[in-house]
Amino acid sequence: MKRAIALSLLVGASIATAAGQFLKLTGSAEFTVSKAQYGNQVKSIETRFFEQGYDKDARVFKVVTRSVRQTGLDGLTEDSVIEAHGTKSSLYDTKLWTAKFKGGGFQIFNDDLVSVTESGCCDSPDLNRMINAQTGNLMFTAMNESTVEFEVPNSKLGKRYLAQIFDEKAPAKHGTRSYIGTIGYFDGAKAISIARIYGEMPAGSATDLYNLKPILKTKDEFREHTVTVWSADGSTDAKSAFTDLGLFAQFYLGSSERDVSVFIDQDKLSSSKSKAAPDVDIDVVNF
Questions:
Q1: CA-CA distance, 241 to 217, in Å (whole number)?
Q2: Are residues 84 and 105 in contact, defined by beta-carbon separation less than 8 angstroms?
Q3: Is 185 helix (H, G, I), strand (E, B) or coil?
Q4: Tens digit of pLDDT for each residue in 240-262?
Q5: Are 28 and 11 spatial neighbours (Cβ–Cβ below 8 Å)?
Q6: Are 215 and 247 in contact (CB under 8 A)?
Q7: 22-68 pLDDT per residue, tens
Q8: Are the C-beta atoms of residues 92 and 50 closer than 8 Å to each other?
């Protein structure tokens, strides 16, 4: 007979509305340990609430995360159900969407995106699912914390994003060269371009991108994950604002290190402006 240990916690919070009333949000946590084939199985269910934005753009997210792990074995299984509420007449008065994603570790990325992280096992990378906060649509899945946001100050231009992405549709070969990784370029609603990187790798070897960092113009500024494109301050034209920027990365081919620079030109990735060694291909697809 299985014996279980269960712990629970209730957390209450009150948020004032514009009408002077209060919205009560109650979180909870449940933790259960039971006998399993290879030790103990640990299950948890946690409900939390997160706020994003201000005034008419204010949103609140109810996130229910379920996780399962087994002592003595590697790996953690998590999934999150997210329920988003927006603001029309009064604070959080409109249900926007509900969606389920693999992973936990919910975070507010900025005023437009939220993320859920599926932790990698062993040497596998973490997968950060970047989600449009208004629609609940999955924008892209970033490898580790590679997402870089580009914003133009004093403009109405939407933000852009560059990241190393999980690209399950990438062909394993480009001619004789083997797939290494993919850089993706996105606005807040859709993919604009991807750049798949291929190299001449020795048989049986594998490699991955690392040391990713944004490529800036002279006046631009990078802090945390955000690039402020001061060189295009006040611009009204996305094609001129988002150009000559990019993402730099390194990787190994055998025992030799390679650099690759993927450039944006006129608001899309450019195969002609991107740079790599002669034994590396950059295959750009524009949507």
A1: 11
A2: no
A3: strand
A4: 999 999 999 999 988 889 999 99
A5: yes
A6: yes
A7: 567 788 889 899 888 778 889 999 999 999 988 888 999 999 999 99
A8: no
Listed in sequence order, the residues at least 6 apart from 44 whose beta carbon sits closer than 8 Å to its beta carbon are: 29, 30, 31, 32, 65, 66, 67
What are the b/e assignments for 130-149, b being 16+ CB within 10 Å?
bbbbbebeebbbbbbbbbbb
Cα 56 versus chain centre, distance: 25
Q: Are 159 and 179 in contact, with CB atoms under 8 Å apart? A: no
Query: Which strands form 269-276's sheet, in the order they lie side by side?
Result: 210-215, 245-253, 256-264, 269-276
How far apart are the C-alpha atoms of 81 and 47, rounded to whole Å? 9
- Provide the 3-class DSSP secondary structure of residue 85: strand
Q: Is the pLDDT of residue 225 over 80?
A: yes
Token pair, residue 79, equals 């999934």
Tell me how many degrees the CA angle 31-34-37 measures, rounded to the nearest 5. Answer: 140
Asked if 85 and 53 count as a contact pair (C-beta separation under 8 A), the reply is no
**CA separation, residue 216 to residues 199, 229, 242, 258, 286 (Å):** 26, 8, 11, 20, 22
Name residue 213's beta-bridge partners: 248
Q: Which tens digits make up the pLDDT trace of 103-130?
A: 999 999 999 999 999 987 777 889 999 9
Beta-ladder partners of 39? 36
User: Tokens standing for 217?
Assistant: 């113009």
CB 28 within 8 A of CB 8: yes
- Whether the pTM exceeds 0.85: the reply is yes
Residue position matching structure tokens 């450019």: 270
Rounded CA gap, 103 and 105, in Å?
7
Rg (CA), the chain: 22
Query: At residue 257, what are phi and psi to the nearest 5 degrees?
Result: -85, 140
